[in-house]
Specification:
The chain is mainly alpha-helical. It has one domain. Helices cover 89% and strands 0% of the residues. The chain is built from 4 helices and no strands. Helix 1 runs antiparallel to helix 2 and helix 1 packs parallel to helix 3. The longest helix is centred in the middle third of the chain and has 82 residues.
């Protein structure tokens, strides 16, 4: 009997830990959203990813720790874990996540800045030559239009079919 109670207490503590992990993952997404402004569609996709991850964690934990038997204390423990995390750890972890994302975005900017410069260079070249190509294409278009209009005005010689030629003779 003591073994069963000890096992359930251990499971309760494990699910409190799972609640803390779920809240950690939520703060990860929250820190990302505060550091980088995202669209409503991106928020929706991130929420779907978050709920997919949380579902996998909870189902995997229930299967491994409880041998697929569902208990009410599991959900109570998860909520307690989330509340412990929010009240004690959330502010500290958010600062860590914020510093992480700030550093990550700076590193990405460092690596992407040469690519951005190269793209800007090619864009300026394309804009420069694009103006001349556009002018040239307009002149060619006007010349072709002029020639087509002149050809329409020239009357074509009437060619009679063989039947009409026989009737005349």
């Amino acid at each position: 009997m003591d073994d069963i109670v000890a096992n359930q207490v251990m499971n309760f503590l494990q699910f409190i830990t799972i609640g803390i992990i779920i809240a950690l993952i939520f703060d990860f997404f929250r820190a990302y959203r505060t550091r980088k402004k995202v669209s409503n569609f991106s928020v929706m996709i991130q929420d779907i990813i978050y709920f997919f991850i949380v579902t996998i964690i909870i189902v995997f934990s229930i299967v491994n720790f409880l041998d697929s038997s569902l208990r009410l204390y599991v959900f109570i423990a998860i909520v307690i874990g989330i509340m412990i995390y929010i009240s004690i750890l959330s502010k500290f972890i958010l600062k860590i996540y914020d510093a992480f994302f700030k550093s990550l975005f700076e590193v990405i900017d460092i690596f992407l800045s040469p690519i951005k410069l190269i793209l800007q260079f090619f864009q300026k070249i394309c804009n420069f030559f694009g103006k001349y190509i556009k002018k040239c294409c307009k002149k060619i278009f006007y010349m072709i239009s002029f020639i087509c209009n002149k050809l329409k005005k020239v009357k074509k010689p009437i060619i009679k079919s063989k039947n009409e030629q026989k009737k005349v003779s």
